[in-house]
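Task: encode each sequence below as structure tokens.

Item 1
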Amino acid sequence: MQDVSGILKEGFLVKRGHIVHNWKARWFVLLQDKLLYYKLDGGRKEPSPKGRIILDGCTITCPCLEYENRPLVIKLKTKTNTEYFLESCSREERDSWALDITGAIHAGHPLQVQQLHRMKNSFKLPSNISLNQIVDKMHDNSNGIKLTPNMEQGNTYKESFTGSALVDWLISSNFVASRYEAMTLASMLMEENFTKPVGARSTEAMRNGDLAEQFLDDSTALYTFAESYNRKLSSREELHPHILELSGTIVKQGYLVKQGHKRKNWKVRHFVLRADPAFLHYYDPTKEENRPVGGFSLRGCLVSALEDNGVPTGVKGNVQGNLFKIITKNDIHYYIQASSKAERAQWIEAIKRLT
């Protein structure tokens, strides 16, 4: 994509519109003092930015929990109280953007930036364990977390558990080694909409604490499973022909630009690469429903980079390079654009391992 000197980070995010609250994929460029965003025309970024967010005096909220079906949103509020909602394609990507934007906002305050880096590196979930697995185990009738009626300020919360009960359970189930790690993991479960606070104490902490203080290891702070967990299960059941292909381990995901089969127009899609079974699915990131708009088995697929000089055969529109092509076993051709040569190479390598 076009070079602007002093770029700290760039990539796709999905932005909520100001007037009509629809969501659109935009190409974001983070500079030291502002965040620019560009519209895509064909497969190419427009030369002039569609808008800019001035970072001086900006506040950032991450995670932003205002959209239940979009748990990966960052909220920016400018000095003039304009709010921007930006969605990433994964937790890691969201946290990386939040860290870099916060770093730019606090560029003159190195201590705050150091503290952010410490917080980011404090705990990593082992790669062989997913939050979904933890939540499934929490629901286990014999070894899961016990849901009991709990009282707070005269209100009874029928099916809930205390913060300290969840911390104890995470340690005894060997997901973490310490209470601090358990609190960080419990915060992640809340961020990703698997659990939610109930009652005044836990709700207040989530609203006002930073990441490390959002979850309370306390026998008076109450939590329960979020409805979205049950909804996610039922929406997966509706997809029954696809359950098997969506059950694989996620190996890689990210925003890529794909050429349509019929109209040959270029659209940003959220691609998810899964192993066992090996499938590549793509989702429309502007829509809320969590079902793929397309996908295919990788068995017998061919994947290759396309030359950057000139427009390759089969490609329409004003494309900007970093293209690759996947040919399925049934001879369907997919033309996909990454945002850099390095990203293209990573995707090709990851897909080749599964073909």
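Item 2
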Amino acid sequence: MDSVTLFCTAGLIAGGLYWFICVLGPAERKGKRASDLSGGSISAEKVKENYNQYWSFFRKPKELETSKNVPDFVDTFYNLVTDIYEWGWGQSFHFSPHIPGKSDKDATRIHEEMAVDLINVKPGQKILDAGCGVGGPMRAIAAHSKAKVVGITINEYQVKRAKLHNKKAGLDSLCDVVCGNFLEMPFDDNTFDGAYSIEATCHAPKLEEVYAEIFRVMKPGSLYVSYEWVTTEKYREGDEEHVEVIQGIERGDALPGLRRYSDIAETAKKVGFEILQEKDLAKPPAKPWWNRLKMGRLAYWRNHVVVVVLSAIGIAPKGTVDVHDMLFKTADYLTRGGETGIFTPMHMILCRKPSEKASE
């Protein structure tokens, strides 16, 4: 091969890699490039070890039944997946119904804005985002409502990412993030004018504990809305396929155990909430929320090649390939859960903390 041909071939390969990684690589919100994938707060050399540690929880299921172990379990998970989520999905780590004629980005934003519209907050009021991730919903909600949003996440790396995004979006005056456990929040009683959680409380070992803590920090008379991950009335515990799908979702998404749809309102009432509305937002006429997962299969294989290459040449930490593969398999379980109707990630419940007069 002469020098000109060799030079041209090398140029094509370099150009192809740049296009594959830097052009195709960024997430839809342009928040993370493939070449920047990391293990969150975990050092690069320990990503593989922590991935194995994550799976060790499932070899000892009793450990997932105690509150003291779950925060570490969830924190490890989000150290492993946050960069991949941002890169391959966006800054909002949740699902939304497909809306014909709308982009995934717009459908996500509309789903988030609906949450804050339901709790009737006014500009300048302070509301809680319980389980805020890197703050995608927080920014959409603050921009839409002009309320001040305080988010809490167990993961220190997500706090750094959220604050960076808030500043870039020019919303750091409306959005704040703290690192903490939403089972023991560092807020005084009766602090917030409203609260919401979007596909987050599913990580709590006991729903009653997180609902009670949210209830505590809300002002009397204020509203709380949550989008919950649950099994539906179609789920059958005796059906082996159903069990396989639900366990696949639990293991791939750091869940101590999915709850039944019928448990949600009962738990909210137990801690003192009044139930104003309850609805599965995934049911018709809503369009399938899992369409985005099915349509993203080609993108997954493209991304997986990128991850394999970056891991092989030492840019992405060892273990990143395993994490990415786990998430793809989980996406299949989620799709099957949606198609069979046995699982929904958007069982909505709207609650009110009774006013002081009503509670007297």
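Check on item 2: The chain has a mean pLDDT of 89. Residues 3-23 form the longest helix (21 residues).
End of task.
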